[in-house]
């Protein structure tokens, strides 16, 4: 009996630590096309400052959903998204806020609201690729009353 109690406490502690540090973001693709998605969010950096980061591209198949877990974000500052059905930006779901993304390759960028300061997180992009960033339009996601960010991508 003690082993089960220990296992339960351990699982609960690990899950609680993960959930407090992470925010769930879910995309529901209700269109008839595959969609590529990027997110933007404010994150506390190791140096202590808060940077706007962009992260993408994630494919969401037609009539499917995709869930991301974002760590160390400043939830109260919101989460933003850009989506389009092809890598040439046809049929995009964008907004009026422009943030830096890599136009074709997977990316994870800090300081994505200023091309002069933009840097790659996780060493995913070379310096040459960072210089070729483009600003894409983003829109704020809605907070679901069940406790996560979500968006429905419709035709």
Task: Give an account of the 3D structure.
This protein is of the alpha+beta class and 155 residues long. 15% of the residues lie in helices and 45% in strands. The chain has 2 helices and 11 strands. The chain has helices spanning 2-21, 127-130, and strands at residues 22-29, 35-44, 50-60, 65-71, 79-84, 97-101, 107-110, 119-120, 134-140, 142-144, 148-153. A 7-stranded antiparallel β-sheet has the order 6-9-5-2-3-7-8, with no helix packed on it.
Features of this protein?
155 residues; alpha+beta; seven-stranded antiparallel sheet; 2 helices; globular; DUF1036; signal
Q: What is the spatial order of strands in the main beta sheet?
A: 6-9-5-2-3-7-8
Distance between the termini: 54 Å
- Mean pLDDT across residues: 83
The main sheet comes to: 7 strands, antiparallel
Class per helix and strand makeup: alpha+beta
Percent helix among the residues? 10-25%
Percent of residues in beta strands?
Answer: 35-45%
Tally of helical segments: 2
Order of helices and strands: HEEEEEEEEHEEE
List low-confidence stretches: 4-19
How many structurally independent domains? 1
Radius of gyration in whole Å, from Cα?
Answer: 17 Å
> How many β-strand stretches?
11
Assembly state here? single chain
Pfam families: DUF1036 (PF06282)
Signal peptide: 1-19
Keywords: Signal
InterPro entries: DUF1036 (IPR009380)
